[in-house]
Amino acid sequence: MSTPAWWLELVDPRLRDALKRDVAEAAPFTPRGHVVLVGHRGAGKSRLLLPVAERLRRPAVDLDASLGRALFERSQREFRAAERRAFTAVTGEAVVAAGGGFLSLHADLLDGHTPVLVPVTFETYAERLRADTTRPRLRPELSLEDEIETVFTAREELHERVHTVPLAVLLRALS
Fold this sequence. Notes:
The protein is of the alpha/beta class and 175 residues long. The protein has nine helices and five strands; from the N terminus they run αβαβαααβαβααβα.
C-alpha cells in the first residue's frame, strides 16, 4: 500500500482525485524566482505555504498575514499598495502565499517568478467563506451569497488571463 501524498489533506477535497492523476502525469519542472501561490480566497494557499517552502528549502512569506486584516478593513486601496510593496521587498527566492486578489491586481509583478494557481471549486470556496466569519467582506453592499458568486466569477475570468503553473506540476516537482 502506498503512502498518501503529503499534500492530499491540504487541497480542496473535491479536487483530490483529479490532482492525484494530474500530478502523476505532470512533466518535470524547475521553478524560477519566487514560487507564488495564487488563487481565490480560501483556496488553501496559506495551508500549502510551509510544506512547499520546506520542500524547496526556501523561506515562506504569507503576504496577508504580514499585512494583517486591520489594514484591509481600514482601506482596501492602502492594503493593495502595501501588498505590492511587501511582495517587491521579498529578496532571494522564497515561497510566497499571495492574497486572493493578488493575481487579479498585481500580475505585472510576476515576471521572472513562478505563479502557481491553487485551484478550488466554487462549492468549497463558498463553504469556506461562509464558515469563516472573520474574513473581511469584499463587496459589503451585496448579500454574502451574491458577493461569493460575483467575486468568484469575476476572478475566475481574470485568472484565466494570467499565465500560471498548475498546482499539479509543482506538486510533482516536490514529490
